[in-house]
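Input chain follows. Return structure tokens only.
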Amino acid sequence: MVARSKQEEQSASEDEEYWDEEDEEEADDTVPEPPPEFYDPDLDDKDAAWVRRQRGGRESDAILSCPGCLTTVCLDCQQHANKEGQFRAMFCTNVRVDKSKTVNSTMPSHRKGKRRRDDQEQAGQEEVFYPVNCDVCSAHLGVQDAEEVFHLYHVVASSA
């Protein structure tokens, strides 16, 4: 066993007295603190009710958010049948459609075995899309077609 000097023993006893005094001071404080000014214990329930009202009882495949700032951009969407990470929606929020720019896409031929003339006619048809950007951070999220359907593929999807 290591022998302790008188100074170490005195220092240790002073530390013990200090901590004992602090515990006594805490015991004397019986005045309850007021709740924090910006705390609401019912806030989660209020937020859930707000989301239910916004969604109108509709079921969605996912809730979509901007990957740049995580702002919610869509509450009601349908996931693409074959392409993972692509969604189609009729209504979006916090987005800006840039109608001054277009993205053209040649439609693929869905009918095989048809005459060449039909394929040549279809090859000339192009579908026009407009870029869709986040209204908060301007990140590119997808496109909107001529029928005003949103096709979103640069989004963060979370369970609905």
